[in-house]
Structure formats: C-alpha cells, structure tokens
Description:
Helix content of chain B: 10-25%
Oligomer: heterodimer
Strand content of chain A: 15-25%
Strand content of chain B: 25-35%
Largest interface: A-B, 30 and 41 residues
Amino acid sequence: MQNSPALVAVGRTKFGEHYGKEPEKLIEEAWLAASHECGLERKDLEACYISDCFLPITNKLGLEEGFLSELTELHVPMEVTRSVSAALLTACNAIRAGVYKTVLVGGIEKMTDRWDKIRDDLMLLEDPWSYYAGGTPESNHELMLRAYIKKYSINGADLDKLNMALAQVAVKNHAHGAKNEYAQYQRKITLEQVFAARKEARKSLGLYDFAPVSDGASALIVTSEAKAKAICDRPVYVLGTASATDYLNYPARDDLTHFAASKIAMGKASEMSGVATKDIQVLELYDQSTVTEMVSLEDLGFSPVGTAWRDIYESCKDYKGYYTLGGRKVFTNLNGGLKADGNPLGAAGGAQIYEVFKQLSGNAGARQAEGELHYGCSNEFEGFGTKSYINIFGRTKP
Amino acid sequence: MSSEPIERRVSYLGDRLKASRCQICGKEYFEIRDYCSNCGRKSYMKMSPVDLFYEKGKLELATLVTEPTNKFTKLENFVYGIVSFHNGKIRVPGRLTDQIIKEGEIVDVASLEGREVVPRFRRRYSVSKSDVVPTISLAFTLADEYYPHQEYNVVEQGKEYALPGIVGYGVYTSRFRIREGVRERAVPFMDEDSITAAVEAGKVALIHSGIDSSHVGKVYVGSESNPYAVKPIASKVAQVLKLGEEDGDVQGVDAVDTEFACKAATSMFKDAAALVNYPGSGVQNTMVIGADNSQAAPRGCPGGELDLFVGYGAAAFVFGKRDVIAEIEGWYSVTSDTPDFWRRDGEPYPMHGGRFTGDPAYFKHVKKATTKLMDKLKLKAGDVEYFVPHQPNPAFPVKVARDMGFKEEQYTCSLQVNRLGNTYSGCSPVGLAAVLDIAKPNERILVASYGSGAGSDAYLLRTTSQLPDKRNRQKMNIKNLTENKFVQHVDYTTYRRLKLGM
Lengths: 398, 502
C-alpha cells in the first residue's frame, strides 16, 4: 500500500514551565527539531493538524491556525484537534485516502499561564456535573480506585500490595524520566515519598500519584509510505489508529472501574493493524494517575481484569526496566509517563509517540529498550477516559 | 463570571435533580432526555420525566476533597462521591454537606459508602458578589442524621371548612448551633442562605400538607436577607417546588417577595387566606414563607448587639380551605412610621435604635394589634389557649405577654428564640409552628408578629381535628430540630465565617 502512513521524524520541547515562551515558540521549537531530523522543509508540508486542549482558555487564542500560518508562512489546510492522537488519526486518514503525502502533526499546551485557575478549567471541561458537585481533577481517579477495590474485593495484604503497586508506578515512571532530557521531572523518587504524600493528603492517592500541570509542544512528520522510504532509512509505520468515546459524566458510566472507550479503541486498532496486544513490546500509557496506568493495562488487554496491580507489584519488586505481563517483557512509559515527563494536554500524546518512534527506530539513547523491537503502542485520553485513542506502530508491517 | 443562560440551565436541572425514564426499556438518565440511547427514535415522546428531589439515594463511592477547586475553597475539606438512586439506575456526583472536617482530620471514607443520603438544596459554589447565586441539589446529608428522609405523598383534599386557614406547615433550620450561656442559636452551614432555607421550608410544608404542589396559585416569600437586592427568592421557590401548573419550564403561579423587617411573612397570611377564599380566584392553595439568615454586624461594631440573638431558618405555611388544621378567625394589623431598625441599600448589616426598639416600637405595636384584635373578637387573655408573641430576644415576648395578662403556660411553648435565635421573618412563624406541633383540636392561638419600621399583625387561629391527624407526616418538627442529637455546636469565629457563607 503506497498510501500507508509512516512517521519519518519527531520533535518536542522539554515539558515543564515555560513562563518566558509564547505557545507559538514552543511549537516552532518542536517543528524545527522534527524538520531538522528528516530534512523536510515547511514548504514540503501539504497540511497541518495541530492539537491543543484549551489554548483558547489559557491563552485566549481562538484561531490557532492563524498564528501557525504566520509562523510558517504557509497557506495550506490546517485543522485543530484536542489531542495529538486525534490529529494523527485525521492526518493518517487523509494520507490513506491519498489526499496528502506529507503532513505535520503537532500539539501545544500552555497550562502554567493560567496556573491559578487551571484545575477549575480542567474539571469543568472534563466533567461539568462532577465539577458543579464539588469534584476535583483528582477525585474521579480516587473514586475509580475505590470502585476497583470494591469490585474485585481487594483487602488485607492484597490491598497493601495494590497500594504499593500504585506507588511503584510513580517510582518507576520517575526512574525512566530521570533518563529523559525533555522530561519535566528528571529525578528519581522513592516509595517513602509517595506514601508520605498520600498521608499528607489524607487519601489513598497523593501528590506523586498524579501527573503534573505542564507547558510543552510536540511535532510529528507523517508521510505516505513511498515518500517515507525516499527520505528516511528507518520509518515507523502507523499501522493502526482508532478511537472511541464515552460519557462526559464519569458517575453516569456503566462501568466505574474501567475505561470502556479504551477497550473498544484497542480492539479496533488491533484489527486495523493486525497487531495483537501480545505482539506489543513498547507501550505508552496515559498515566494521568497511577490508577489509570494500572487500569489501562487491563483495558488494553495486557493484564487480566482485576489483576494488573499484581502484575505491577511482581514486576516492580525488583524492577528491571519493564513489566512482565503474561510472561513477556512490556516496556511501559519509558519516557517517564505523564507522571515524570509531564502532561501538557494537547502535546502529551506527541511525546508518547515521540518515545515509541525513538524506541522502535533504536535512537532512544540511555532509555533504549533492550532486544529486537517490532511493535509499539500509545494510548491517549481526552478528559477522564471520555475519549480514548490507540495508536499502533511498527518497524515493519505484519 | 458565570454565564446567565448556562446558570439558568444548570439550576433548572440541578436544583430539582431532574431525570428521565424510558417508557419502553426503563433505562433512566440524570438530566432531561428526549430520546433513550437504547431505544433510539422510537423512544421519542416516550421519555417520562422523573425527579430525584424527594428521593433517598445511596452513597456508592466516596473520597475526601482536601484541595478543592477554586470555587469550593471556602468549604475547605469535604467528602465527595457518587450517589445512586433507584437501585443504581441513576448515578450522580455529589458532596456531603453539613460536615465540618478539620484540617488534618482523618476521614474513613469507606465507612460512609453504602449509607443512605438525602439531597439538599444548597448554594453550588462561590461566585463574585455581582454574579447570579448558583444553586444545586447535588449536596447530600446522611439520611440517618440531622435531616430525616421524608416522602412527599399527595393526598386527595377532603373536607371544606367555612373559613380558610393553614393546611400544612414546615420549619427548616440548619444542623449547626452556637451556644452562649443558656442561649442556643441556629447557624447556617457555608452553603446555606435565605434562598436555600425558603426552598427547604416550602418543601417540608408541602410534605406536611399533602397538597398537590400544582394547586398553589401564589407564593409569598418574606425575607430581609435575600442575597439579591433585585431578584425574588419566590421565583426560585416556585420553580424548584414546581408550584402551580407546570407548562414547559414555566410555572403557572404568582410568586412575590415581601419585605417589612420581621413581619414580611406574617403580613401575607391574611392575603394568602383571602386569595383561597375569593370565589373567582380559582386558587386552591397559597404558600407563605418567612426565611432569613438573620444579619448582624460583628460584636463591638455599630449594630453589633444584634449578633447576640440572630439565628437562621425558615417557616412555610400552606393555606387553603380544604383539610384545614387551623382556621383563621380574625386579624388586626397596625402600622406607624417608626424607624427603630433599618438597613440601607448596599449596607451589609442592619442598624437599630437601641432602647428605642422597646416601648415606642415593639411593645406599642404588638400590644396595639393584639388588643384591637381581642376587642374586635370580644376576647380576654384567658379565652385563648396559646399566645405567640414575636420573639426578637428572650426578654421582649415574656414582658409583652405578662403585661397583657397571659400566663406562662399560654406563651412559653412558643418561645424558640433561646434555641434557634431570632430568625427575623421566620421568627413569629417558627413560634406558631412550635404551638401547632403540640396543640389539640379546637384550641385558639393568638399570634402577634412585629416588624420594625414598624407594624404588627395579630391573628386568631382555631385548630381543627385534622391537626393531630396530619402530625405523623412531619418528622421535621420543632422538637426534632431543637433536640436533635446530630446538632453540632460551633465557636464564635466559625459562626461568623459560616454566616458569611460562600
């Protein structure tokens, strides 16, 4: 298939606080890095799909395409989505349809410009009724954890292990983040710190169980297979892109312990790509919290339902850089996850794909996963699982 | 800045907890739906409206919020979770209200899961003083604590009486009290105000009366602490309680706020009674509510003396001619331009005339109205079983009763000012409610309200045999409110903070 989409280059900024930079500067930086990597110029771009979750709110930028046009002096079609995965899906569909051959996909978010109101913005956009009732960006995660513990009757020593497993998720992600020069937090943390923060919060989840608020941008250059082969030695194929949708209001969903949208999207992406869960070696999960990393392992089929905490616990007792899931090594959140890498909403999915690209093409430096890598997968949310995107990538086509 | 149209829509659904049920498959939804997602187009026009306002829910999952979003920061720490109704067919988010959780306090949220909860109509969150006051009923209290769950059962109205009168009533006050010496006063929780008290009192009055809320043709709300200078509380009461015939999102009812210091509500008793008695009105029932989060400047400031007595609460009375529990036999009102207590527009706290509020104000008017009514009806003090004088403080009502020859047993049971404080517009109505709670059939009750500015309304009521019959419909009586073991006491600083609200 000449029109199969492939990634030829990726770029990103450091995630964190960029008080001195405008959103335009961030995407410019990410684009230039990607452009430099593959040698494509801006005049080669036929279209741009850029995502941001709430730049119109944080930076009062209503027509993002306009400033991108000014920045690039391009007058090509540009559309804005809310997540990089949504932008990628749209770009890939256009390439598959033969409409474009070279497309820029990117994401920007500038959350710290509105640091004092960001939690209200987040919650109001994510789940308005829950916001009106007093919910916080953290509370749905805490309620999901309660629902999970009750549904699977986890108590006693098992509950201690589950709480430990969640702490291990944070510690593991920080350990990976420590090797990522672009990560917001490039330092290790300890289990003691995670538990101390929970005690401080008087809750099952504390500061270290949640991803931070971040600024940042990411960029991906997607081309048709033919074009990719012409300009790049080791393109990474976008084999499957799928998404599914669920209620905005978390309490009203049928299943409070899992993300239905993730299960559906994973099924569709697997079908589209011909790559099964058991084939995936590099995995980027959307760890808004340690709970979502745990639950997502089940939703994507890596762990049987109700057991991901056990898999995490066993893998992390003596962590070797990967989870052992179903007897296989699954390298999970090698960039540090949202927890350590940072979570600039509209750009975070790009950092996940950046990582999968670097790992599959063998250019991940100190973070490079061992062994022969064939397939990777990234999962991105919009909201609290209201939308779930699955992207499956491969060095080769199955 | 909130958007008024958004505010209107959220309140319209959230105040009453409106939901929908598919007549085909039975699936239920929070919010109003035109279609069922299971049944699709064939369910159009087959979605029944359901509302959860009078229902009891279950707290399914709970967590503690210790870092609220900006609009909830004044609540500091609270329990938040998911509440289910109808055996889990509907789940909504909600917070537990009426709980003071201290900084650093450990809350065993798991032990709260599975408990039954009752929706409370409260302020939703903090907004700027120039914004619309947002409300919601996604605030809950535990059903086995201060507020019991009460079902609203509409009862076919029976016997028609010769005179119009009260067919039901209800008193609402908060769980919190401040105790100073022998005096105890009600303190609103952070999310309460005169609007929330008026709605909750109207709700319990409807429950007690058993009338169909659509039969209420007019509602009057008397208050001097309406958070708005312009915008009625009565419109909120009418919408939330569905008073009058419902037609789309408009209610076929007249709703009006009244103001005359503490007699804003009692003044309207005669109007409410007259309206149901007027042959051409077609109005079966009317409702009068007196509601106040009684205002007082802090102690030591001008007007701060009031801070010793102010309370919080509301009383609501439903009037009609059928199934009357107390007929109105007569009234007399007096008025003079006496500036003994006032609050200028834009000022947060009222001022008062010190000793001037006594003889030339309270005593003169209460005595005049009472005497005139007794003369008119040829009554002596000994002819009535109960005397209910307005009670702004503990001393005035006792003195006026004694001066007029009433005996202790005639007036003591009406005095609630030492337990709930001066509830301003709700003050003499609360006294009347306390008497109705215990009176026997065919007893006479003489009520004399007082409103600064100044005036007094005296009413003579005669109880009927239906009074004791209806008593078991009302768990929220004065005894329950004042002797409730779930009452929580707060210190002076907390009391001032709670009174200011969100």
